[in-house]
Design a protein that fits this description.
The protein is mainly beta. The chain has a single domain, classed as Rieske [2Fe-2S] iron-sulphur domain (Rieske Iron-sulfur Protein, 3-layer Sandwich), CATH 2.102.10.10. The protein is about 0% helix and about 40% strand. It has strands spanning about 10-15, 20-25, 30-35, 40-45, 60, 65, 75, 90-95, 95-100, 100-105. It has a four-stranded antiparallel β-sheet, with no helix packed on it. A three-stranded antiparallel β-sheet has the order 1-10-9, with no helix packed on it. Strand 9 (about 95-100) and strand 10 (about 100-105) form a beta hairpin. The protein starts with 7 loop residues before the first strand and ends with a strand. It comes from Rhodococcus olei. InterPro entries: Rieske-like_NirD, Rieske_2Fe-2S, Rieske_2Fe-2S_sf.
């Protein structure tokens, strides 16, 4: 991971990610889950489910949401809102691929 520059940080290499899965990184003291979607784009959210602290990076994903592996609460990648229950939203972070690296804006 590189230092924060203008709110952006390189968390790792794109080759560290597997399509359809997530990985947790610690950025500026917070856990962030980064997901490589099957279409080759990346998304980033808080890594901890607000319901019971489930590991969101271990959840199932589709193009629009991640599902917490503990209690199946689904959180949208675009807004962070829970689509299945009245659970607090997770933060979402803009993420991109630049020169083979994954960059997240905090």
């Amino acid at each position: 991971m590189t230092a924060l520059v203008d709110g952006q940080v390189t968390v790792g290499s794109l080759t560290d990610l597997t399509p359809g899965e997530g990985r947790t990184y610690v950025v500026d003291g917070r856990q962030i889950a980064v997901f490589l979607l099957p279409d080759g784009t990346v998304r980033a959210t808080d890594a901890v489910c607000p319901h019971r602290a489930g590991p969101l990076a271990d959840g199932q994903i589709d193009g629009a949401a991640v599902v917490c592996p503990l209690h199946q609460y689904a959180f949208r990648f675009d807004t962070g809102t829970c689509t299945t229950e009245s659970v607090a939203p997770v933060r979402v972070y803009p993420a991109a691929i630049r020169d083979g690296a994954v960059v997240v804006r905090i």
